[in-house]
Amino acid sequence: MKVLIVGSGGREHAIAASVAKSPKVDKIYCAPGNAGIGQIAECVDIGAMEFDKLVDFAKEKEIDLTVIGMDDPLVGGVVDKFEEAGLRVFGPRKNAAILEGSKAFSKDLMKKYNIPTAGYENFDSPEEAMKYLETAKMPIVLKADGLALGKGVLICQTREEAMEGVKTLMLDKKFGEAGNTIVVEEFMTGKEVSVLSFVDGKTIKIMTSAQDHKRAKDGDQGLNTGGMGTFSPSPFYTDDVDKFCKEYIYQASVDAMAAEGRPFTGIIFFGLMLTEDGPKVLEYNARFGDPEAQVVLPRMKNDIIDVFEACIDGKLDEIDLEFEDNAAVCVVLASDGYPVSYEKGFEIRGLEQFDGKDGYYVFHAGTKLDDGKIVTNGGRVLGVTAKGDTLKEARANAYEATKLIDFDNKYMRTDIGKEL
Ligand code: AMP
Ligand code: GLY
Question: Ligand 2: does its nearest atom lie under 6 Å from the Cβ of 271?
Fold first, then answer.
């Protein structure tokens, strides 16, 4: 079969690598892809938001299955466009992708269906938000309702910061329309865990857990980024946590969406915080995490095509999801200066040393081919994933492997998975 993957990051490279393992697949296309994806797929120069071009391409090439990796096209309704054209596609429709596309929607959903989450209020008027903040307990969290590249969340220690935050989001419109409505949420503390799942509208199957390191610098210092590294499984995701989430969060979320007339098919990514009062949902995403996919998918034993097809056909109950009994760590190699400003265009050396190296993966994010050479082309450049019997071993393997790759301005955190 022929598969089209939409996206261009490390996550899409990890999806492509899993798809490539399926004996059912003869040909993979990726739009727009990157230099690493180009080694296992044919990259096509169509942007993820160019829905009509994507649909036309899928028709012309007789694509059997399209997999959408990114949030923007999902929230924008790309799945509906494919379905209208009679094409098979994996991902939630627009009316379900709102689970990620509107934080106000997801908070109201959780409240209505008693799914554990932080207390909150939604505001579409800055005056009312500020009035509420005059007496609210600090610290407090402000969130832009819409998509903001993971940067629309402000943790405010003082009332002054919170007032300033309302101004930034709602009046200065730092994240554009995404800040027309904001969620003002109770501040929680605890360990964070990412849990990805496959969903077919009614059945949900949970993948192995993972944890992201979002801050740019060691010791969780510096600015928030798209993610500087991940490990899987999370030792904090205990059997008790799993049992609680299965009882109160996972199926409840899927049932809530169905009850609202918005059946969800695709990936639900639960961002959880393990608080003293039990696990609570920080956020939902409607796609694989990046770089969570880079540690979760290499550990999955199933043929990913079978799982995608079962989700589309409403037969996920027939799938037994299985993961290897080991661990994986992904260290992101970034361009120094990310996430603010950084140079691009430097040659990346050493990639060939990973050819045929079992248990190791180099997932490309910001790379491109330039005159036959692979060069840096973004803030997050590569994700180096290694497996091990234990997290400690996987971590040692991943850091050893980062030494094989070299490029000017190479930067990484040195403490991914260190607390374990
Ligand atoms: P989100 O995009 O909603 O996951 O938020 C981004 C990050 O902000 C999360 O990963 C948390 O580290 C932090 N965060 C979000 N909501 C809260 C909250 N209510 N309390 C404490 N930290 C939060
Ligand atoms: N790593 C967090 C995300 O993909 O949203």
Answer: no
Mutate which of 282, 283, 287, 290 for ligand 1 pocket (most atoms within 8 A of beta carbon): 282
Q: What confidence category does residue 420 fall into, taking pLDDT thresholds of 50, 70 and 90? A: low
Dihedral (Cα; 214, 102, 169, 183), 10-degree rounding: -90
CA distances from 11 to 107, 144, 241, 293, 356 (A): 26, 24, 26, 6, 21
- The residue count for the chain: 420
CA of 267 relative to ligand 2 center, distance in Å: 13
Instruction: Write the pLDDT tens digit of every residue in 309-348.
Output: 999 999 999 999 999 999 999 999 999 999 999 999 999 9
pLDDT score of 82? 98
Question: Is 118 a residue whose pLDDT tops 80?
Answer: yes
Q: Is 345 left (phi over 0), alpha (psi -120 to 50) or beta?
A: left
Q: Which pLDDT band, with edges at 50, 70 and 90, does 149 fall under? A: confident
pTM (predicted TM-score)? 0.96
Rounded mean pLDDT, 285-292:
98
b/e map 131-160, b = 16+ CB within 10 Å: eebeebeeebbbbbbbbbebbbbbebeeee
Structure token pair of residue 342: 């950084």
* Secondary structure E strands in 82-168: 89-90, 120-123, 140-144, 153-156
Quick one: DSSP state of residue 24? T
For a ligand 1 pocket test, name from 105, 142, 153 the mutation site with the most ligand atoms within 8 angstroms of its C-beta. 153
> Is beta strand 153-156 parallel, antiparallel or unpaired with respect to 140-144?
antiparallel
